[in-house]
Amino acid sequence: MAITVDGKAVRPRIKKSYELLAFLATRHRHAAGKDALLEALFEGRQDDCPVAYLRQAIRQLRQVLPSEAIESGARNINMTTHVALTNDSERFRSLVTQAARLRGEDRSPPSPQHCL
């Protein structure tokens, strides 16, 4: 997974930061409750260690993303609405939807001579 901010690759120091961002990218409104994050990222463990590690993952994302990109409250974490968050699966789904709308010759695959 790669994280790009304003055209530059950024790298949080811990893997869970990538997993956290990937999870938020798949959620409606790019938001999740902390219980759902603990379930997804730490197999539901709720003891002190996963909770502390989740805090570290959030902190690492805050260090590499724009300062206002992540909001966290007592129970929820979300990406703010002015942040454009995209991922490959969303792009793929969008392209498939666009292709499904094509009709007639526009829907035909290119001829082999165009594939070279």
UniProtKB/TrEMBL annotation:
Q: Known SUPFAM superfamilies for this protein?
A: C-terminal effector domain of the bipartite response regulators
* Matches recorded under InterPro entries: Sig_transdc_resp-reg_C-effctor, WH-like_DNA-bd_sf
What is this protein identified as? Transcriptional regulatory protein, C terminal
